Amino acid sequence: MLPALQDAAWKFLRRLPDATQMRGEDYFERGTVRRVREIPGENGFQGEVRGAETYLTEVIFDPSEGAWYGLCSCPVEEDCKHAYALMRTVLSDAKKSAPAATKAAPKAKKAPANGFSSRLAAGLGRELMATETAFVTRLETLFVQARTKGSLQRSDLGALGLAGDGDGWERLDLWPTLPENVHDFWLHLVSYVREQGGVVPDFMLPLSDPGPLAERLEKWRRGRTVDRWKKLLSNLQRPRGPRRRIWATCGCVLKMTVRWWNGGGREGKNSSP
Questions:
Q1: Each residue of 94-115: pLDDT tens digit?
Q2: CB contact at 8 A, 156 and 177
Q3: pLDDT for residue 271
Q4: Distance between the two ends of the chain, CA-based, in angstroms?
Q5: Is it the case that residue 245 has pLDDT exceeding 70?
Q6: Are 61 and 5 in contact (CB under 8 A)?
Q7: Where are the beta strands (DSSP E) in the chain?
Q8: Judging by beta carbons within 10 Å of its beta carbon (0-12, 13-18, 19+), is residue 122 exposed, middle or buried?
Q9: Which of these, 29, 47, 135, lies nearest to 92 by C-alpha position?
Q10: Measuring CA to CA, which residue among 204, 79, 86 is closest to residue 139?
Q11: Which of 68, 134, 203, 267 has its CA 20 to 30 A from that of 120?
Q12: What number of CA atoms fall less than 13 Å from residue 133's CA on the CB side?
């Protein structure tokens, strides 16, 4: 797809109602679009989108209007969530197949402004969609909440769709010190979500590389575990009588485990009890 047509495609997506964008983004993220192909003789694409049923959907560029429109076999018939999902898939495929030189070429952007949203838009090389802006707004709200309360519960992450399984009232240990800004806050969440086997939204990937933070958090978590075991050792009461040998054996095993963790999970030179 030519760059001019891509710009018009993004305008097409942004002009759809917010509810249509949200539902269409969900369809796109879940990979419901199949068999995408160009329409012969036209600037357009056709595909099958699975919803309640499988619908035949088309997005076509009208050169006289300089705009895209969507047609679908669903009850809505035009500019629906299926058309949104198809267009997002077409744009995603175009980005993947673009030559490396084209990807690296500088793009004309608005003068950069401070703020997480502006950095994200710069990383994506485009303006944020309504659903993406809503996500960032919820993230910023959660950051303020965390700064106020000092911590988060698992249920708090539900606002971002990142809660996962477990007790919703569970207090999460996400950082050794409170993050100073939204980006740092987001990187701590990314580290936690990935540690739990979860994934972050694709559009957030440009700002989702924890870098050195991941190693610092791993050392911090390992240190906390070692401290808990040391506390357990210090609280053990030396028994008398027949159970003394059992106590000594348990204490020895715990000490060896602490040494193993202090070595980063590797047995050190002085690992013998």
A1: 776 655 444 444 443 343 334 8
A2: no
A3: 42
A4: 67
A5: no
A6: yes
A7: 33-38, 44-50, 54-62, 67-72, 152-153, 171-172
A8: middle
A9: 29
A10: 204
A11: 68
A12: 9
DSSP state string for 185-231: HHHHHHHHHHHTT----GGGGGG---THHHHHHHHHHHHHHHHHHHH
Pairing of strands 33-38, 67-72: unpaired
Could you tell me if 138 and 159 are in contact, meaning their C-beta atoms sit under 8 angstroms apart? yes
Q: 49 - beta bridge partners?
A: 33, 55
58: pLDDT strictly greater than 90: yes
How many angstroms separate the most distant Cα atoms in the chain? 95
How big is the CA angle at 110 (ends 125 and 68), to the nearest 5 degrees?
A: 60
Whole-angstrom Cα distance, residue 170 to residue 64? 57
CB contact at 8 A, 36 and 45: yes
Q: How far is CA 62 from the centre of its chain?
A: 35
**Mean pLDDT score, 177-185:** 83
Vertex 105, ends 102 and 110: CA angle to 5°? 125
* Measured distance CA(24)–CA(22) in Å, rounded: 5
Place of tokens 């028994």: 239
Token pair listed for 8: 């018009």
Q: Which residue has the higher pLDDT, 196 or 19?
A: 19
| Inter-CA distances, 73 with 11, 62, 76, 135, Å | 23, 20, 8, 30
> How confident is the model at residue 249, as a pLDDT?
54
Q: Which amino acid is at 162?
A: L
CA distances from 134 to 157, 159, 206 (A): 15, 11, 17
DSSP state at residue 242: G
Q: Six-digit token pair at 7?
A: 């710009």
